[in-house]
TrEMBL record:
Example GO molecular function: DNA binding
Source organism (scientific name): Streptococcus himalayensis
Stretches assigned to the Rhodanese domain: 131-218
Source taxonomy: Bacteria, Bacillati, Bacillota, Bacilli, Lactobacillales
NCBIfam families to which the protein is assigned, alphabetical: HTH_metalloreg (NF033788)
Entry protein name: Transcriptional regulator
Keywords from the UniProt entry: DNA-binding
PANTHER family recorded: FAD-DEPENDENT OXIDOREDUCTASE, PYRIDINE NUCLEOTIDE-DISULPHIDE OXIDOREDUCTASE
Amino acid sequence: MDTKMTDYKNSLYKELSRLTKGLGSEKRLEILNLLTQGPKPVEGISLATGLSVANTSRHLQVLKESNLVVTSRQGNFIRYSLASAKVAQLILFLFDIGEEQLAEVRTIEAEYDREAGVNQISLQEAVELSEQPDVLLLDLRPVEEFEAGHLPRAVSLPMADFHQKKTQLPKDRTIIVYCRGRQCGYANVAAQDLQSLGYPTFSLNRSFADWKWGKREEC
């Protein structure tokens, strides 16, 4: 084989392998999924993932070296965001493949839904039903993520305030709750809580990112 062509091919694969280094950690995958919801400072990522700030910074450095995330300055804060829309699509596509190819993933999701014992709803159904006046689409994410983008006609009630304000929700409306998608889990928790209080409730285990990038429609 021609040496020049071999060097060319090997160089390409070597550079592409930098991406797999960024993806090769469950915590880095969690960080990337979190950033599909919008930019965040290292402290916000640390709080959401349960990692120390130091560990979060190390993971972010790997992701930056892999060209999967970029930084920008807002006042005194450095904010991290996905490097491009295609990175967001890559992460969602990876989760799709996981659900299709890994029986363990499907089992984990099914058991979690079964234990919650709440009605599930697809993304398409939720968006369509939210047009009806007797349906309330509830976004459980932090306010800054809601403001960065949310499902059509959704109303913000961050999970941090949910337990204090849940009884103020109207009982004459069907409530659909969503958070950061299947990898989050808060939608089932909130739906279970509301259901126990007598609210007609559905859990939407998809996210704004799923809707924005048009990747998934199933429950």
